[in-house]
# Entry
Amino acid sequence: MSYEYIDENPPSEFDQEFINNYIDKYIIIGVTYFDPDGNEIEKTQMHGIIRAITSQAIEVELQGKRKGELWKIPPAFNFITPAEPGVYTLQTTGETIEDPDFISTWNVTKQS
# Structure
């Protein structure tokens, strides 16, 4: 399954200092999928370590139940927020993550 993210204002290049604020940080990612009519069809949650950032993607080395997988999200930093300290329980997997650095949530509409 493949989805396209189109950023109206893509960054021309990344500042290395800015990138360093994210590399090797722990992130929780939540994705909700919708059909073309807006009906929710699936939710998934995952967590891992941000390993690379390019103009095309943020690469996350997943941990926990999905350890060994690489997940890519668009480099849209407005969809990444600092996480409050505490323990987070993922509804879709039951996993608990303590004190992640960031949280990112996405709504994806499948094309017909």
